[in-house]
Amino acid sequence: AAPDLIVxxxxxxxxxxxxxxxxxxxxxxxxxxxLTVSHDRGLLRRMDRIVELSSLGARTYGGGWDLYVERRDAxxxxxxxxxETAEREVGRAAREAQAALEKKAKRDRAGRAHRAGTSDPKIxxxxxxxxxxESGAREGRLAERRRAEVDAQLVGARERVExxxxxxxxxxxxxxxxxxxxxxxxxxxxxxxxxxxxVGLVSLRLTGPERVAITxxxxxxxxxxxxxISGQLQPTAGRIERPVTAALxxxxxxxxxxxxxxxxxxxxxxxxxxxxxxxxxxxxFLFRNVAAHRTVGTLSGGERLRAALACVMTGTxxxxxxxxxxxxxxxxxxxxxxxxxxxxxxxxALAIVTHDRDFMDNVGVDxxxxxxxxxx
Length: 376
Prior knowledge:
46% of the residues lie in helices and 19% in strands. With 376 residues, the chain is of the alpha/beta class. Helix 6 (262-269) packs parallel to helix 8 (301-313). It is elongated, with a radius of gyration of 30 Å.
């Protein structure tokens, strides 16, 4: 149809690496205009402008992803400085208002003492008292206006900083020893009851806090392999050893039950935790106050994965092996960066299926296991 403009909504979300590269190539050489909604950083590097939408409105940045990150980080550093300045100004305004009140009280006491000990006419004393009252009222109004201005500045500064503090995910230690075998697969295969082999002849060993990415085209059996690793499936041939605690987070976050609240889910998965522990853990993932009582079935895909991460990663005994199936698919960019930051300092082992090269680099993947479609 040779359109002048193509509009793309998350065009690479469920594509493998080869298909993602193909989309990026097509966009790069497209002669017309392109408007896309995307969290794919590789694709965003092809853009001429990025419009960031948030609760504060829309902001436009010239250039692609890397320039956007540089300017955004500079803005956030400036917002942090503005918040510090606003907090100091609020304190100063409060001290100035208190000083004005004390000054007025001192004048009032002096006026009353003077009035009691003077023989000046009453009309003159009343006029002086009226002027003092009007002067005090003006000073009070000025102080209130000053406090209102600095309070408004503080609110604005906090809103700007809130964008930079979207997620805070302190990761408790798993106490995983460096030389401990976390996972061992020896000649593993899995076939359907009809005999169709989906995963064939995989041998893999993880020792200590290693992190491995499982890649390959769609249909190569990556998700099936993760289910074998987690114990959801048993191999039809070969042997799997899994001597540590493990948790699988798939794209549907099936570890959560649709009918339970987030508080109930967290406490089911972390039975040693208290309700206060649950609220604190969920708040780090932006489920604050009443949001922690939402039911899983009402959550969007991104919210559900975020909740699953909160339940698994912030418990009293975090898993020593974390298994992630396309963890960035439904997350916004700030959430992706926050999860990357958390996983970068996670001291357990990681097995990840992802087509997001930036994610692999940022969480420190040690090696890559590439699957090809099984035959027979």
